[in-house]
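Protein modeling request. Please complete all fields; requests missing the sequence field cannot be processed.
Requester role: graduate student
Desired output: 3D structure, token encoding
Chains: 1
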Amino acid sequence: MVVTHQPGRLDDGRLIAKAIDWSTSVRAHSFCRDLLLGFPLGPHFPDDSGFALQLFLADYLVVADPGVYVGSVPVGGTPRIEHAPESRRAVNSRVVALTLISFIVATGSFVGFYAGTRRKMDLEQWTVGDRGFGMLLVWLLMAGEVYTTFTFLGASGWAYSKGGPVLYILGYQPLMYVVSFFILPQVWEVGRKYHLQTQADFFQVRYKSRSLAALVALVGIVFIIPYLQLQLTGLGMIVEIASYGAIHRTPAMVISFLIVAAFVLSSGIRGVAWVSVLKDLLLLFSAVFVGVAVPYIYFGGIGPMFKKVAVANPAHLTMPGATSNLGHSWYISTVFLVALGFYMWPQFFGASFSAKSSDTLRRNAVVMPFYSITMPLMFFVGLAAMLILPGLPNGDLALLTMVRKTFPAWFLGVIGGAGALTAMVPAGVMLLTAATLFAKNICRSVLWPGMTDQRVATLAKISVLVVTVAALCSAIYSSTTLVNLLLVGFGGVGQFFPGVVLGLYSKRVSTLGVFAGMVTGVGMAIPLMVTKHDPILGVNAGFIALCCNFMVVAAVSALRPAERSGFDDRV
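Delivered output (571 residues):
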């Protein structure tokens, strides 16, 4: 479309561009169609997916006698206004976005497959990468587990729909790295000494109980499923929106997870770690650019955006935000639950065992907080979307809808590809972990104790497909929001914390105490969360279950005679 401008002046004398009504005036110089990689020029927001670069370039492009000549119309003539057909423009956008998404996913998949081509994938190599990852690979692998689709969609979605309660994310992140600094290096030490490969192995060796290890494995698998569902649901949303609706989320989830299952089967944890390199580069670029650009494009900065939010909906920025029961008690209890339980996810034990040394994990805990810069940037996008796109049916759609509205199709494709890898990387580790827990700590420990490592590895690879199908069914037939899925998972895996921390630092804790405490905690958390009785009296239900867990462990252990720790035995 032809857009014509004439110079104008602000009170301070700066030149600006003002749109002219063609019916009153016609000038010889005009900016015609799109310029600079598809970004249209003009002082107002266009109707299509681009944004007006004139906001940034007005001071440079508009002068008293414009020297930029892109298109022209005869003076006194009739302007030629050209519109690309809407159908053709939509098809072109879909093709561009889908091409970039497909290219990024294909590149990540190739890296995942290639990573395992020169390695013999025995059980040790497949599950813990032969315990040889340096700081860079461990950092990227851990970051791949910490910053998932939740970062892309869930955080911005809660900022959009809930408001103040989303700040619990900024509360738990610094604390969880403190917990990891003191716990994960100790976990690595006993893992190296006793050749541990899973979280359940830790419990089996420390407490000398296969039954307890099987319970830990079963609980871990049950709560990995909603976390996998989170990744699947987010991936489906990303591909559906980034393709302008050309691909429905269900086939997108199926295709992507079959790819993930394939490179997990072929390359194990090493393949996931190398895909994390590409994923983290794209995630950081996308989060920083979008998180900064969106507030500046629409509001002139982050500060002005918050002023607009405060005027439009002041309660949104305070507790309980747009909710009725997520107040300060919920905030504090949730921060503690997530901070203590974050590294209790089974996949973090496998990632820790893959490190070259315990110092690698300590350094990782020190540098990981720098990655947290991406979270508040996602909040900014969600808050901007609340003003620009009110009434979205699902807050988790806020970031992608804003990107599609604001940027051209090629950039949406980059964001879509980055988001797809952000789902695929953690999903790969979760699939591997759940399958290994089932094959090694349930089947071999309880059902067939004589299984060799080779048979365990074969059964684990078969189990990858079974877990994939279970997660797909859960994602297709459930509509729970991404943050709620994550909180349900934390309510379950957080119950491992007493057994891990007391197992490392206490000689008085008993096997029966840990078993009874875990049954109590999980038995409270699951019914409360499934029946939507969370929070209770304003307190996170998972945190209440964790407190009861601790009390049962302490009471039962106090009544039992002291037991010799399995970590005191010589190998």
